[in-house]
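Annex B, item 7. Sequence and structure tokens for protein A, then protein B.
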Amino acid sequence: MLRRAGPSLRHFLLEGKSSAGYSSYSNKAKMSRPVQARRLEGIDKNIWVEFVKLAATYSKVNLGQGFPDFPPPDFLKESFVRALSGENHMLHQYTRAFGHPPLVKILAQFFGKLLGRDLDPMTNVMVTVGAYQALFCCFQALVDEGDEVIIIEPFFDCYEPMVKMAGGTPVFVPLRPKAPKDGKLMSSADWQLDPAELASKFSERTKAIVLNSPNNPLGKVFSREELELIADLCVKHDVLCLSDEVYEWLVYDGKEHIRIASLQGMWDRTVIIGSAGKTFSATGWKVGWTVGPNRLLQHLRTVHQNSVYHCATVAQEAVAQGFQRELELYGKPDSYFVQLPKELQQKRDWLVQSLDAVGMKPIIPEGTYFLVADISKFKSNVPDVPDSDEPYDSRFAKWMVKNKGLAAIPLSAFYSGAHKNNYNHFIRFCFAKEEATLKAANDILQKWKQEKTSP
């Protein structure tokens, strides 16, 4: 039997740990080079991380983050249970990477009807992990170093960092408010693009424009005239349109959601982005999709297959069944797409009255879950801090959740850094909440009003 000569490797390592030599080696072994990729520079902060934590710590009523606190419709929950507990055990396994076949087929059928064209479920539809991943795929697949992407302000906050991560340059153009006549409450329709200003943002470097209608945070539903202005510029300058339409069913007061891809010259240059979370009030399921021409979606599929690759099969199956029901009931009173906006319009009107009664002037949204209110009359509660780097509405929202227990989001979070102080006297509320939640918010506001008016 051979004997091992000399000390064991374990003995050598243990001895070495206690020696000064090992300490010196350890110090040298520490990495001194940057570990963060350059594409992450300047995009590490996120409004939701901060305000979700504040709401969880202090709020009695959370009207900040955009999710319903009521359940999805029964038919959708039942579809999920059937998919989860049924005999088809393959629903617990991988499905097609770019979308569960039943889901892409019904999405192609449904949106083909809305767009007035035949859609191929295998090439014109791709399922994603929520609309968030759909957006990420768009920017990664279609935006290159040096490309400019036009973003309409205010905008959902992920657009800017996603453009930058792709190597692109965001170019911002604002919706500008016009004061209503006769002292009426402002509407989201009063926030409009300046046609000349928008046209000036297009150049030979422009690769795409991001359109969000209905718009988060304002609730603006772009009119046909406004969409035609955008479409004409896209065609003239050969620019793509990334159309975020996750709130497409949530429009009020008889307004119509018009899909820009249906306008002349736009189908071949548009990617439509949708969300089952917003469509069926099930944001935690994280099922989204893109609809568009194969010449664009083929590149999104490349990003998808090399990142997420696959989305939850059971959730896709349930959403497919939900859409099948809605196709059969399309336009009828029993359709969830008809019932939900009616219910949300009532909730919107209730919150409008609550805010207006206490002196926060609401901007009446034409769509979405959201309502923006002017807090100018409440500045006595939270005085301005001269030369502060933090926008006023951000400090106000933090003060409000800590002192009043009511959570909302500052509108400045939806603007680029250079423009955050231009519209810093507004905050955003979410009204997709149970009646009890909205009543509790009203109670806080009424008590606050009494405190302000009492001697």
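Protein B:
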Amino acid sequence: MSAQICRTMRSACCHTIKNRSFLHKAVLLHVAPSDLCVPSAPVFHKRLYSLDSLFSGPGRPTLGTSSRQACAEKTSTSPSPTHRNLSAVAVHDQHPPLSRYDFLDLGETEDKIRHAKSCKHKRYLIVDPDLATLVTEHLRPKDDKTIIFECNPGPGVLTRTLLNNGAQRVIALEGEKLFLHGLQDLERRLDGQLEVVHCNFFRLDPLGCGRVKPPARFSDSLFTDLGISERTWTDDIPGKVFGILPLHNERGLLLKMVYSLFEQLSFYKYGRMELNLFISENECLKLLSQPGDMVNYKACSVLWQMACDIALLHKEPWESIVMSSSRAKQRAKDNFCLVRLRPRADLFSAGLTPSNATALLLMIKQCLVKKKSKLIDKLNLWCPDRGSELLSEMGMREDILTGHVFPDDYLRLFQLMDKSEDFRQSWLYRENLENTGRMGWI
């Protein structure tokens, strides 16, 4: 009996490795035989850009059979609980049994490409197993309590890779019904590690009130349904969010999210959520710009740098990410940049609060409209005849331009002005009060 079980396990293991070797060939479509190519399917080139320390060399190496076996051995000896249990539904439906350290099959790459491109709406989706592995390495949580929110997972290649690498709670927020069935089928096979919700993360908390129809959702109802409660700002990171920002509205979404961060609204009511986003290289350049760059240094740059520790994790050629709708002609002309935005725990520790943060947002917007205007002129408008005094206290020159001020200096200036009664009587403070009822300012 034991010999028969061993033969069965060896057969299943060989079958799994065989499937993965095919995935390796499918990724390198430009060297595979021509009959394996899919019309209009993207070709996954070797990576030319990698800023992370997880992979060495000019590009990301693909995982061969030996490296996958080593990975499996490493996983089996890890103290963290990486095994998955089948639910009763999976047993009832007679799905292929999963052993304690077995990997979820990622599926045929060509099939995933066809499935992704069948979506009628324009979406950018990950189907490359190597890219999914790289993203997983950056999302790997420190403990089992950290929740991973995957925005618009599509065919679920990254979803399965996260689960294969030991993620204990993945919440897949999928806005397209086309992909829901496959994700929900995977959810039924597992034992609580995956939750699938019909929701588009980038359409959370629309303006107005009343009922909304999925995939739009209000964050309060979403997090209540998920059993996630509000947390204080200084607690550990409760969750990590991964997504690819829609290229047609990157700036608007980044502004909406950073406003919500300062006001602790939307999903930021539930703690310091860490964002891991693929954005265009052009938008990344603006996000990381420094004072003195009069072209790229904008209010959005100042606010994100003020609120978060920002890290550029990786650059990926746009050809590696599948665009769904064949009717959509717009494509990114540069690389996708994986950026991590981790909110600072001490952001609200020196006088800044969600109540007065809206005045800070308005001040930054006013200063960065004309980056070549003198800062002292702005200060004299908000705190009459106190501009020189404030700059002297900050150790700044009186002729400094608004486009040459660092984010931390803007925050310190605001904290000084907020203590002044003159500032509380200024037009800026009054306009702030008129905007406190508007969520996200969008």
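Comment on protein B: Residues 1-101, 436-442 have pLDDT under 50 and may be disordered.
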